[in-house]
Amino acid sequence: MSRFEECNEQAGFRSCNIMKEKYNFKEIELKWQRYWAEIKLHKTDADASKEKFYCLEMFPYPSGKIHMGHVRNYAIGDVIARYKKMRGFNVLHPMGWDAFGMPAENAAIKHGVHPAKWTYENIDYMKKQLDCMGLSYDWDREVSTCSPEYYKWNQWFFLKLLEKGLAYKKASFVNWCPSCTTVLANEQVIDDKCWRCDTIVIQKELEQWFFMITHYAEELLQGCDELNGWPERVVLMQRNWIGKSEGVEVDFPLDGMNENLKIFTTRPDTLFGVTFMCLAPKHPLTERLIHDKEKFELVKAKYGKMDEKEGLFTGHYAINPLTDERIPVYIANFVLMGYGTGAIMSVPAHDQRDFEFAKEYGIPIKVVIVPENRSQSAPPRADGLEAEMTEAFEDEGVLINSGQFSGLKSSEAKAKIIKYIEDRGMGKGQINYKLRDWGISRQRYWGTPIPVVYCKKCGIVSVPEKDLPVILPEDVKFTGTGGSPLAESGVFLKVKCPECGGEAMRETDTMDTFVDSSWYFVAYCLGKDSINLKSEIKNPQSEINHWMPVDQYIGGIEHAVLHLLYSRFFTRVMRDLGIVDFSEPFENLLTQGMVCKETFRCPEHDWLFPEEVKNSRCVHCSKEVEKGRVEKMSKSRKNVIDPDALINRYGADTMRLFSLFAAPPERDLEWSDKGVEGAYRFLNKLWGIVYKYRNELCVMSNESKQNIVYTSFITRHPSQLLRKTHQTIKRVTDDIEKDYHFNTAIAALMELANELSAFVPEKEEDRFAFSFAIKNTLLMLSPFAPHISEELWQAIGEKNSIFEHPWPVWDEVLARDEEVELVVQVNGKLRTKILVPAGLSDDDAKETAVREPKIKEMLNGRQIKKIVVVKGRLVNIVISER
RNA sequence: GCCGGAGUGGCGGAAUUGGUAGACGCAAGGGACUUAAAAUCCCUCGCAGCUUAGCUGUGUACGAGUUCGAGUCUCGUCUCCGGCACCA
Fold first, then answer.
1. pTM (2 d.p.)
2. Taking Cα atoms as reference points, which of A428, A402, A502 lies closest to residue A459?
3. Residue with smallest Cα–C1' gap to B27
């Protein structure tokens, strides 16, 4: 007795084998979910005899309930996981919870419930929801980032980074959300607003912990070349975010002061065109240079305002080291302190911002670059000063008015000028990145405590490894009035210094939750209760190295920069710690599109839920509703569909099928209630076909167990249905393999089902073909709609789980059509189609086409210039015009 | 502004990579079954015209081009969506 049969017997799952007429999804979905759990169908262990496949979907934040975005994400992942399993891979398919975060704390403030309680209750509920979807997770590997067993390792990473000098503390201006009373990363600020609550973000100076991601900037950039399995646009966004630019740092001596002004430029070829210098308002030298305090405050206030250029002449001059010219020094609001040196050389002729500034303040504009082919326009003035320009010339070209470098092309000149500068000690070549170090401090409770203490005597002391985890205290009040709640906790705050034993205070900030999600994918490899990264260092039997990298990662495009970049950074840190032996965590990435729906708005009641609209009128006031555009489903617009309601009404299989059928995974999906009905109809139709022939199919299925008889039989009796089945296997397999185009795969299955429902098996070979077609339809449908496939599989007399059965293979010969439609064109225009035997030679095709009466008539009296044949498809006869 | 991506029926979307445009689904219209409705099944379905068993034009945002042949390739224009945005 097989393992499955045993389980069946015990659990009684297959004891009642009488098929019902009606498709009762509620009954069968529950039945199979229980069955799969019982036999631990989805449990995975490392198995050297099979090729591994790590299928991972981005884990959710346990906000309370799953939404359609999750449904789509996890349906896609589940199809891939189940398909790969049937293809013989040993598939790792885990799920967990990105469980730290602000909503839990907000709930605590609002409702007085502890974040832990709130979070774990949400996890319980959402886990049930995921199970109701029939997802094939190995729950034995579930992780929750808010558990001390997990966040201990965040703290461990922190200590390792601190040891390596890759974690440090500095005072810095941070993006501060007054509403969330916390710090935000640059990436969390969108259009000057908080990504979560849309409040305007202000600048505030705080002591912050940073991870030195810039240490890996170049490597993270180079690594982009290897991300062949990622969507190009995501790779591009990563590259842009890192933002490498090559140039030179040049020292401009300040006239009459024993001081240099260091600037960075990517255009050393324009150095002869410098007519002023600009400093950022926060540049360390500004305080010493300015006289007009009042005006300075104005400029400072306009820092970061994009629309206005505001400057202040300091009265000081710098010396251009190449020309010895005296250059006026300004303070300007548009110069950023955070990039380069915080000071720039300004070349108004060749930089639009400088140009606008120069016009405003009456500064000369000196042209030093001309287009390479500038013979047609007027020659530049000898002094290079240009009054007539209307905009800067920012392209590269040929140098003029540039001393010994005049006449050179920009590219050559850049190299030569950099060398000239370096040789004379005026500066040096320099590479800058836009990428900033990662500020990880958050003034919040519900996150990983940062494991350091502050001792009056010893200063910053890290918590010894043996004392990890530093656990979040329970005695915390959630008032919502600013600052870190941990600072209020008596038990937590006071601590003995690990070094001197004296009085010390704990760090009260917690870590950005992006730390949690930067390594969770390796935690799954180790399993729920055995996360121990330290023992993974140089471990020859490493489970992590066995399963990683992730073969297919699936998630939303919103993580194109943040999460993915941090994960790539952490993977390199883990590599340098000896935990992993690779650099890129995600081999292939699929970014699924958003789930969208039209919006409804009532003149009186504002946004309406779909169920609040009846016949285009508001159910509350009967006013006509305004139909808005199709937008991403969001609670604020109320254009949402509740997965629970959908499962209740149509079942998980229908919900999965529709969300996979309506659009290819990477594209946005527009929700359609009618479309869902279509998916439901399809499943009902299939149910009806199997029900109608259930008795014959059972007999067939048993007979077909004698494989040899079966195969030789169908080979001797090819039929249209058999051919269609083989063609469908080919199409579905190709569609899944080629970029996971599930929508067309499902369309092919619908076609086959249409053929099945029209088919009336009469002769014995018909019944064989029919049985074969049904079996394969179910096998191919099973990753998409697992419950109904498993149920019908049982109904046709199969004894084992359908997911134990390998994915079907097609036979090229049997898939081949006997007759093909030959398109006949005359001068590229379709004139007729004729049915011809497959494999017709080109000459025969030509002859057949020319002999066709209609074509013959058209050719009458004209000269055939040539005939193009596309084998088995088309004949194009090119004739002379009349 | 810069960098990407996209534009195909009433709608969601197909089209073997240069070879029948509109697969599959939805909606719509007609019919069958039914006392009736729902469900189900069958038929029609890009647009226009005609001498209407059919035929002829025309059609993949717009305009050119390459080719025997273009939704697909090239150039130009427009529109929409995303990312970055004073990065020197």
1. 0.91
2. A502
3. A674
